[in-house]
Structure prediction request, 341 residues.
Amino acid sequence: MASSMLNRADNLTHFRGVTPTGLGFLGSDFHGKRISKMGLVSSLSVSRNGTIVAPKCSLSASRPVSQPRFIQHKKEAFWFYRFLSIVYDHVINPGHWTEDMRDEALEPADLSDRNMIVVDVGGGTGFTTLGIVKHVDAKNVTILDQSPHQLAKAKQKEPLKECKIIEGDAEDLPFPTDYADRYISAGSIEYWPDPQRGIKEAYRVLKLGGKACLIGPVYPTFWLSRFFADVWMLFPKEEEYIEWFQKAGFKDVQLKRIGPKWYRGVRCHGLIMGCSVTGVKPASGDSPLQLGPKAEDVTKPVNLFSFLTRFILGCMAATYYVLVPIYMWLKDQIVPKGQPI
Prediction:
């Protein structure tokens, strides 16, 4: 079933001697190798040897961020995780967010001192936090999430017993300005109604010289994957991450590509955890970026019919992204190593 849904032309075309134009940044492939300065890289993939390649998939603009997807609402996301928290660590992570991926994605955060103050925003069940406390004392780490059901799972994990665990909103953090040495957020931005506001908050809570590390999805280029991504939740393009960080005031913004090893560099279908973006806070105080009111007011009453429709359609779209890693894993078993998949 997954094979028939995802069937497409998988040959890859190499770009030789062509420098893409657009917003530039320093990136890396799945194995951490540096890539030359690139632009609009969401249309590109990177092979094992660092060669920039482009899949034969049509490109189109993603839905505007101002048009939230069905689960890109705080209340829908709350109930989505009310049920997903039951199987999150056992069903979702093995296909999309492995321990190897986590450790590679956290490497650019420079967790170099056990006494660092770290906030893990959207920390959920604490899977990413387990990677953080390898390098930082748990008593110095705060896990924040809007889902009490996810946080209940984090509280059960022995290495996280000394962490502070609080409910909160990524777009309105309950931390003072210039508070933390590191801001980490993994697998959370896809549910933010206003991602720019969340990244602005990351800037505010960091100390001078502090670093933010945001790990999240990348937008698909294959038409069917693109459709389900736009129905389900926010899959930003790589250059959008860079733009949000720069607008918030961050300097030395870098993006590192990550992905399950069985994807073997293929990014046509998008990745729920596809990149790690970092930036350094160059000055004390709040972000210089000025924003208007929040995109979503959670205090307003919800139309039950509208809520249920969005929730059901969003969950149906999410099912597709359960099939994608199964398809890619099977393909990795069938196609000989060294050949593009």
Q: What stands out?
A: The chain is about 30% helix and 20% strand. The longest strand covers residues 206-218. Residues 1-57+64-289+301-341 form a domain with the Rossmann fold fold (CATH 3.40.50.150). The chain has one domain: 1-57+64-289+301-341.
